[in-house]
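Milestone 3.1: sequence recovery, worked example.
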């Protein structure tokens, strides 16, 4: 791993591509913003694949991968720019499967209930639950984690475990920020609650993504020939560094306000940010391009 707190600035993925056999690329904030896709990012991944590289998209979306394929199609993300997708929803299902027919209270929107298709969980009211399964806020257009303080305290008093399907704290949706399931999981842990998370930055999602890449290649892929691309420090960067993967840090995403002009991030600010977070990267770029 060649990550450092003083990564180099690059003009695009082409400067690094020849050194890597596979890319694990974040989705939200790198390829799209929930409203529209980023054409240069899609083009960069398609070009990398055209040169023989493998691209596995790795996202903290709380739904299974086939739903994300559909969503990206509606946002204009071409299938040419990736080989496979692994979601937090995919790996969370494995955690939920272990719970058998547990009495479960779902926290999140109705559209995210597709995560549970085919599982034996019994969905019950909040007062009867033995397990909290969180895919997000009930209504992320108006709610904040503060609205859940009493609920979190009540769950903690009863000793209920939480399985969090999306470790992200916030994401950009178009030109605004919305709270994600990870914000509730963090609040729950802060008051002493037990929360299980399989998505980034935790190991299971990376293990699943690397297995996908190796299956596509038809053989093992050394970790020093894999680069992770992402914009989120606590998820993308932390996870990749913990898994000994090189990082291409997209600075124009969730942390863009920390680096000066979005299109011309200040290297000193990027280096300071990484040092403060105890993280590293191989290189940085404002937006993913070729």
């Amino acid at each position: 791993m060649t990550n450092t707190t003083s990564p180099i600035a690059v003009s695009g993925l082409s400067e690094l591509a020849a050194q890597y056999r596979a890319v694990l690329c974040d989705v939200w904030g790198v390829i799209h913003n929930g409203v529209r896709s980023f054409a240069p990012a899609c083009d960069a991944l398609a070009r990398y694949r055209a040169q023989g590289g493998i691209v596995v998209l790795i996202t903290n979306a709380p739904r299974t991968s086939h739903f994300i394929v559909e969503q990206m199609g509606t946002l204009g993300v071409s299938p040419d720019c990736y080989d496979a997708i692994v979601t937090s929803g995919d790996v969370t299902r494995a955690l939920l499967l272990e719970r058998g027919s547990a009495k479960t209270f779902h926290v999140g929107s109705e559209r995210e209930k597709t995560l549970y298709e085919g599982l034996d969980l019994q969905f019950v009211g909040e007062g009867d639950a033995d397990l909290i399964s969180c895919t997000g806020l009930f209504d992320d257009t108006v709610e904040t984690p503060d609205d859940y303080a009493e609920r979190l305290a009540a769950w903690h008093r009863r000793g209920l475990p939480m399985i969090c399907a999306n470790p992200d704290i916030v994401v950009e949706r178009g030109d605004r920020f919305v709270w994600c399931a990870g914000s509730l999981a963090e609040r729950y842990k802060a008051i002493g609650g037990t929360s299980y998370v399989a998505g980034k930055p935790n190991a299971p999602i990376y293990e699943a993504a690397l297995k996908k890449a190796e299956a596509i290649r038809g053989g093992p892929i050394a970790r020093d020939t894999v680069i992770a691309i992402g914009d989120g420090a606590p998820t993308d960067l932390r996870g990749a560094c913990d898994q000994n993967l090189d990082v291409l840090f997209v600075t124009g995403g969730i942390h863009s306000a920390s680096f000066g002009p979005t299109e011309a991030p200040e290297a000193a600010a990027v280096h300071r940010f990484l040092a403060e977070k105890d993280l590293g990267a191989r290189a940085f770029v404002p937006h993913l391009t070729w």
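The first strand starts at residue 8 and ends at 9. The longest helix spans residues 203-217.
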